[in-house]
Design goal:
The complex is a heterodimer of chains A (110) and B (112). Chain A is mostly beta strands. Chain A is 0% helix and 53% strand. The chains are: A mainly beta (110), B mainly beta (112).
Amino acid sequence: GQQVMQIPQYQHVQEGEDFTTYCNSSTTLSNIQWYKQRPGGHPVFLIQLVKSGEVKKQKRLTFQFGEAKKNSSLHITATQTTDVGTYFCAPFNYGQNFVFGPGTRLSVLP
Amino acid sequence: KAGVTQTPRYLIKTRGQQVTLSCSPISGHRSVSWYQQTPGQGLQFLFEYFSETQRNKGNFPGRFSGRQFSNSRSEMNVSTLELGDSALYLCASSVDQNQPQHFGDGTRLSIL
C-alpha cells in the first residue's frame, strides 16, 4: 500500500523564524491536501494541490506539489505563536484509502 | 452553515462493552469518513461511506463497523472493547472522497 512520510516529526522554532515540513509518498498522487490541528482541536483543511509543480500561497504559508506528484512541502515564513500545531499532509489516490501522514508538530517560542 | 457534529463528546466504557458513536455531516455532504487518533499512531483511517455504501475500509478488526443512513448521518460501532481502543474518534464529511474534509470535534473514548 501507499507509504507516507513527513519530516521532520517535530520542529521547535523561535517566533519570526521560518518553518518547512516535507511530505513524501511512495506512489504518484492524484492530489494532496494539507491540514492543521491545533492542540486540543480537530484537523482543519488548509489547501488542496492537484497539478504537477503547483505552488499556492496563503498569506505567510506557501504550499508546493512536486513535479513528479510524489512529494509536497509547506513553508511558513516568519512564524507566529498562532502557527503552533500539527501539520498533516493527506495524499490521495482514487480507489485507495484516504491516508494522513504522521504529521509535523510545530512549536513556536515567543 | 452548521459544521460536523459528533456525539457524545466523551465516553467512558469498560473492557468487553460495546459503543456507538454518531456523526451528523454538513448538509449536502454525502461522504463521511471515520478516523482513530492516538498519540502513538496518528490519524488512522477506519472507513468511508458514501450514499449509504461503505466505499473504503482501513486495516481495523471486524469489531469496528459503521453505517450511513439516507440522510447521510453516520454511526460507528465498536464491540468487545479493548484497552487499546482508547482514542479520539474523528468523523469528517465532504462532498466526495477527493474533496476537502471537514472534521467534527471528535468523541474521546476511554476504556477502563
